[in-house]
Design a protein that fits this description.
Blueprint: H1 7-10, E1 18-24, E2 27-32, E3 36-41, E4 55-61, E5 64-70, H2 71-74, E6 87-93, E7 96-102, E8 104-110, E9 116-117, E10 131-137, E11 140-145, H3 147-151, H4 155-159
Parallel strand pairs: 2-11, 5-7
Antiparallel strand pairs: 1-2, 1-8, 3-6, 4-5, 6-7, 9-10, 10-11
Length: 163
């Protein structure tokens, strides 16, 4: 009798090569899947005075207070009215959960190493300062966000109890 191979023996997935993709307008962005905790419809967000305008406030996620950032606003893009596709992607960074408001979530993709390229330099322009890589996969260009860079100026505020 032949032995049937287990799924883990025949299919190997590396979560580090998987990205959750989302849209801001027509542009597709990616987040490392290992950072994603949850995807939520827009809950009640409590504004907090004295914080940067891209931080919309805090929300209660299963009893935990989570700061919420509007990615459009942080990227200096025009604000849009939230709709039924607008959602919050909850990510973990330095043992903290933070919500990211995006226009819509697309899918989870596996990106092969040879599909990555470094973001181009645009003459000192900071337009790519939050990007880790750009991927050309499945006929789509995906701008991958570097969470360390994206949250660099906010982590102290979150961890000190400012929010």
């Amino acid at each position: 009798m032949s032995e049937i191979p287990s799924v883990s023996a025949t299919v190997e997935y590396d979560i580090n090569d998987r990205f959750l993709t989302f849209y801001l307008g027509q542009t597709i962005y990616g987040l490392e899947l290992f950072r994603v905790v949850d995807i939520l419809t827009i809950p009640a967000i409590t504004p907090v005075p004295g914080i940067p305008s891209y931080i919309k406030g805090v929300t209660n996620l299963r009893g935990k207070i989570v700061p919420v950032i509007d990615v459009r606003t942080k990227f200096n893009q025009p604000a849009i009215e939230y709709n039924d596709k607008t959602c919050i992607i909850v990510v973990v960074i330095h043992d903290m959960q933070v919500g990211l408001i995006v226009d819509s979530v697309s899918d989870v993709v596996t990106i092969e190493r040879d599909e990555f390229t470094n973001p181009p330099e645009f003459g000192g322009n900071e337009s790519n300062k939050y990007l880790s890589t750009i991927a050309n996969t499945g006929g789509r260009i995906i701008l991958n966000i570097d969470c360390e860079k994206f949250f660099a100026n906010d982590l102290d505020m979150f961890s000190i109890g400012g929010i």
